[in-house]
Amino acid sequence: MEFKAGVFTVAMLAIVVLSTPAAPQKPKSPPAPRSPVVLAPAPAPAPAAPHHVDLADLLSVAGPFHTFLDYLQKTGVIETFQSQANDTKRGGITVFVPKDSAFAALKQTTFANLTQDQLRSLLLCHALPKYYSLAEFDRLSALGPVATLAGSQYTLNLTYDMGTVRVKSMWSDPKISSSVYSTRPVAVYEVGKVLLPMQIFKSDPPLAPAPAPAPDAKASDVAPSPASGKSSASAKAKEKAGEKSSSCRAGVVAHYLAIAVSGGLVLLW
Questions:
Q1: Which part of the chain is the FAS1 domain (predicted)?
Q2: What is the model's pLDDT at position 51?
Q3: Backbone angles phi, psi at 96, to 5 degrees
Q4: Quick one: CA dihedral 72, 163, 91, 186, positive or negative?
Q5: Do residues 177 and 144 touch, judged by C-beta distance below 8 A?
């Protein structure tokens, strides 16, 4: 009986549970919007290190500029030029480089009598504190005297005529014969004369003595030996002696002919 009552109780509970309406379920709240993922920008590539032109290396291999480079290194001016070339904020550098022959054309005492400060100023006078291409000299020539790295009192006058650029200091007026290197911020141009400012040279420096003339191309390349010289002299003496003896014999013959002729005339008389 107890077992039947338990089964009955369980069945009644099941009926009650099934007949009880289910409680309304609350609607699920929509998921919260996700914040967009912000990707950090990729780091910019590091700027490439600027390429600096080594002026000493350039002058040592480009053209016959050994004398000018030697003066730059002995005075330390090459370091000033290099610093100006490396600092692009200053505007670069333009260098007028004389050839070795330009220094050889001047008398050796021209630079030997200069003080160290004068020599430095002379070298610094060969550079402008800014990069200029050949085309820019047309505009620059209209601006009048241009200050050099030697200071505002050391100026150059540049002229531009149909593509020909001349660089004038007090005692020289060379033209730019070629462009050795011209890529911003460095320009190096070859000139045929040393720039000689009047602040250093009060008069035109003397030129070196002219070289001895070359031997005549028609002359024999082989010098005559002493023996051959003596033999030629002996031959000439013999030739003169022969001429003299011949003339003497001719005189004697003429003399005797005259006597014979006169004697014949006497006999006829």
A1: 52-195
A2: 76
A3: -105, 115
A4: negative
A5: no
Each domain of the chain, given as residue ranges in start order, spans: 55-191
Stretch 9-15: mean pLDDT: 55
Tell me the per-residue pLDDT of 18-59, one tens digit each, with 9 for 90 and over: 555 555 566 666 666 666 666 667 676 665 556 789 999 999
Q: Report the alpha-carbon distance of residue 242 to residue 238 in Å, rounded.
A: 6
Q: Which fold has domain 55-191?
A: FAS1 domain (2.30.180)
Residue 75: other Cβ atoms inside 10 A? 18
Question: Which amino acid is it at 230?
Answer: K
Residue 76 Ramachandran class (φ > 0 left, ψ -120 to 50 alpha, else beta): left
Radius of gyration from C-alpha coordinates of the chain: 53
Residue 212: predicted pLDDT:
61
Extract the tokens encoding 99. 């050839």
Instruction: Say how far apart CA 42 and CA 225 lie, in whole Å.
Output: 89
Burial class of residue 70 (count of CB atoms within 10 Å of its CB; 0-12, 13-18, 19+): middle
Query: Is-contact 136 146, C-beta < 8 A?
Result: no
The average pLDDT across 75-96 equals 95
Determine the Cα–Cα distance for residues 137 and 29; give it in Å rounded to an integer.
Answer: 79
Q: Which residues contact 259 (CB under 8 A, 6 or more apart)?
A: none
10 has a pLDDT exceeding 90: no
* Helices 77-86, 116-124: crossing angle, 10 deg rounding: 30
How far apart, in Å, are the Cα atoms of 53 and each of 100, 149, 200?
22, 18, 30
